Amino acid sequence: MNNETLKRLLAIVLLVVVALGAAASIGLHIATKALKTQVEQALGPDSEVADIVVGWSAIEVRGMRIRAPKGWPAEDALRAERIVVKPDLLGLISARMHVPSITVEKAYVSVLRAQDGKLRLLPSLMEAPARAGADKPSAALPVSIGTIELRDGVMEFFDATVRQPAHKTRIDQVHARIDDLQLPNLSGRTRIQLDGSVKGVHRDGRLMIDGWAEVADRNSDITTKLQGVDLVALQPYLIKASETGVRRGTLDMKLKSTVHNNRLHAPGTVSLTGLELLPGQGPFGTFMGVPRQAVVAALKNRNGQITINFTLDGNLNDPQFSLNDSFARRIGAAVAETLGISLEGLTRGVGSAAEGIGGVVKKLFRK
């Protein structure tokens, strides 16, 4: 083979490579556009995706948005600047798909608790009627997800059960991680971790959640901590409209809840620090169901801090079980012991205390 022939062969090979590269690029562009359309269709008519980048080892979704339905207290149900999905490509040819990691950056999500107590999240997806011909859940391809990580997110929780319009609690700087998630049956033990900043009027506090849940079996072991949360921001949960309001103060709480065979065991501690009440209500006013004068006196004698220990127990399947009633009994005895006053002095107030804090705890475990 002479030099001229070799040059011609090299030129042909180069042209073939360029042609194949162009075809691959065009094919990848067409496939990416089709994937973007399919994603938007799957998310529903109120969604949009700015761009999808398909790589050899990951799929990147940019600028995803799902607008909220009419009557929702926020403009969007979900936003995310960037979502990176790293699938196991070899698993695509097996009967079970595995996704090692999904990373969501700078996301926003809004959650609504309706007046009937129902928790609503992503209604256009979660509440959409099944489309004709759609596969039944049992026929869906099993998918195991190693880790879902949320970085620098924001969650707004709107609660219509405590106030109208719905009371908003905002959590910034949310970092969450979920490990070992099995879809669609949610079997096995899933690890849950969350850390975020709870926005307040005078200061911001911290929320930390750490534990695991067996969603299919409805078992869980979760520790929840609140540190330095502004009491003014939590007023609708702590007091009734007729009670003394809060000028300033912070709340710390630690609650370790265990659910096994639908039986709840949840010991906890609540501390109020630097509490200042608004004037008014007269000598018979109450705060969290406790006589106002007793609270003020206790703050003076305890360096501005009150700590209350309590334990919640019950069968979540028992329609007669009420976390409000259970909390009323526990908190009544604990407050009486802490403040050194008689239980009789709390009889009128303890009920409203249960409706306050107990209502919050009940919502955490409501089915």
Main attributes?
367 residues, alpha+beta, 2 domains, 13-stranded mixed beta sheet, two-stranded antiparallel ribbon, 6 helices
What is the β-strand count?
A: 15
| Gap from first CA to last CA | 80 Å
Mean pLDDT: 74
Strand fraction band? 35-45%
Rg for CA atoms: 27 Å
Element-level helix/strand string: HEEEEEHEEEEEHEEEEHEHH
Please, how many domains? Answer: 2
Main sheet makeup: 13 strands, mixed
Percent helix: 25-40%
**Which structural class best describes the helix and strand composition?**
alpha+beta
Low-confidence stretches: 130-138, 341-367
- Globular, elongated, flat, extended or rod-shaped: what is the shape? elongated
With helices defined by DSSP (H or I, 4 residues minimum), what is the helix count?
6
Task: Give the SSE layout.
Elements: H1 3-43, E1 47-54, E2 59-67, E3 76-86, E4 97-113, E5 119-121, H2 123-126, E6 143-159, E7 167-183, E8 190-198, E9 205-214, E10 219-230, H3 235-238, E11 246-260, E12 263-277, E13 286-287, E14 290-291, H4 292-301, E15 305-315, H5 323-339, H6 347-365
Helix pairs in contact: 5-6
Question: Please, could you describe this protein's structure?
Answer:
The protein is α+β, with helices and mostly antiparallel strands. The chain has two domains: 48-123 and 139-185, no CATH class; 220-367, no CATH class. It has six helices and 15 strands. The strands form two sheets. Strands 1, 2, 3, 4, 5, 6, 7, 8, 9, 10, 11, 12 and 15 form a 13-stranded mixed beta sheet that branches. A hairpin with a 2-residue loop joins strand 11 and strand 12 (263-277). The longest helix is centred in the first third of the chain and has 41 residues, at 3-43. The protein is elongated. 21% of the residues are buried. Residues 130-138 and 341-367 have low confidence and may be disordered.
